[in-house]
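fold-stage: in
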Amino acid sequence: MDDAYEEKRHWRRGFFSGILTVAFIAAAGLLVYTVLNLGSAGFRTAENSGSASVGSSQVEQKTERLKALIDQYYLDDVDESAMVEGMYAGMLNGLGDPYTVYYTEEEFNALMESTSGEYKGIGALMSQNIETGIITITRPFEGCPAQQAGIIAGDIITKVNGQDVGSMELSEVVAMIKGEAGTTVDITVYRDREELDFTVERADIQVPTVNSKMLDDKIGYIYVMEFDEVTADQFHDALEDLKSQGMEQLVIDLRDNPGGSLDTVIQMLDEILPEGLLVYTEDKYGNREEATSDAENYLSLPMTVLVNGNSASASEIFAGAVKDYHWATLVGTTTYGKGIVQRIFDLGDGTAAKITISKYYTPAGNNIHGIGIEPDVEVEIPTEAYDDGVVTEDEDAQLQKALELLRSGQVTAGEVQQ
């Protein structure tokens, strides 16, 4: 069995079992990584004191009244900073859009780190069983400090720097393990009925968001975990490596990929598709922005793309473009259905707001929000395949169907329209 597939199916386990939360995996989203800085000059308050709009005197009076009630009657001590942060968060939450959110300074820093694909730590993917609280090493990244120290997949973390982590949340343990490059962290794990101690030197880590492998019959396989800033270069390197091995056909696996950077998916599509429109966005004023592919590079060979209900946002831009161009055959199940774009606004004090700013459309003019993209060939993975929490390559009906379509000649290379 190939290593890339083995890594992918372990990572996907959390989605199918429903009991794992995984570090470093973002919620479905499509971000424009232009962080706009808005100081106080970027805001204007409402002047109409007769309405209950944000910034009106009526709202200010009610806020003061609530504050007075809290001061006089609330039983416990009050963290005023947390209360104010909650007020800001509630303002955006009131829009009813799950993708428009407020970030505290700590949350904003974590967001920017996770979307960059780079951080300082030991280089390992960790998961937590929400029923037992057990935190497990899902995968140490190849060549990174965790692997070099001897930590392996399946190790259960029991202590960090001598402190028991049995009652901690995954985010707390991750924060303890991360740190400046060159510093060390002591990690105790439980393996084969014994505890093992490791001292791991932290380093600058680039998350491997792309895995690839050459399968039989010169079929290349590329799994894309998410669309981070580092993903386009990793995807390019994977393509070049497979080409050097004589790749004649290709499977691109976008299953359980929650999305990421709009710029990244555009760069990746530019490597695949011929000259033309890739995606366009429209804001509430009708302003349209287009992203196009040039004529310099494209990949014309029989290709399948695997998708499922957890393929979202940037994954759907990729799938929608190759489908509209008839450049690849989509195999799997209907995608998530997120057809909107968010932008991050730096509020000037370390906090930020992520706000939905536009809808996006596939080259054929389809907005898939709330609908998703239907595959060309629908294939479900039988529920019983997940009985042990792991789907083997042979049990993966979607992958097997994609390979069957390629090997039988039912999928042909895309042709440039003249």
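fold-stage: in (second)
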Amino acid sequence: MNILVSNIELVLDAKASLAEGPSWNEKKQLLYWVDIVEKQLCIFSPTSNTNRVIALNQQIGCVVPYLDDVLLLAMENGFYSINVETEKLTHIFDPEPHLFKNRFNDGKCDPAGRFWAGTTDTYGINAAGSLYCLNNNLKVEKKVSHVNTSNGIAWSPDHTYLYYIDTPTKKVVRFHYDICSGVIRNPSDVIIFPENDGLPDGMTIDEEGCLWIAHWGGSKITRWNPSTGEQILSIPIPALYVTSCTFGGPNLTDLYVTTARTRMTDDELKQYPHAGGIFRIQTNVKGCPTHSFCNNNIGAETL
């Protein structure tokens, strides 16, 4: 398929310090995202062009849909739920209470509705982080150890592979994935990031099984074939630090891109005045949907 992209549009000039973790609510046509540094959960409506900001008391790494008015978050101190109507935050579990310098970073739900999210320490280079999975029964399981900066995660459309980024390694690792058990095994490097092109950050996947990866410090989104390791598309983004992306819109063909303005010099901010904004790219390929957390036996009142 010949992939076409057009109309790279700034849809929200948020000037976020560190916009991250975008996820799409297909039913409500809403984009959830977080500003990690500013401790904000944000809900953007493309339909009404409004962005609701919920201020919280600790840094948020990522957000995933759960119930109509309940989302799950991975934060500094573990997994939480939040009722967006009351803004009540409820703690679920902290797998790292002894690691004071660690916080949760990127994460998503798998096709079975488990919430996977990983941690990083302050510097993101000391292999002090891990990748965890919050199972449907609310039990937390460590999946990968000795992680520097846990970042992009995605599942193949046929649900047989998990793709994972530990940013400083400059590569994408593929695991064999069992959707029934959540077990991952046989890691192998499938994409090696080029030098002087930024670092791999967040990512998403389309229905053709190709990965779309954000370049931290590289001002772009790239599309890759993980079967061959080949980069097949590069899209410039008018921001130095491109953090993540997700497919949304009525047909899941709009790629929403988050960016940051933290650590930028005055000259860099002049060059990229819309850094920290949310961008949208129209494509002709359909993305895989954002999966919601699934817990059939426990109601929202328990979270």
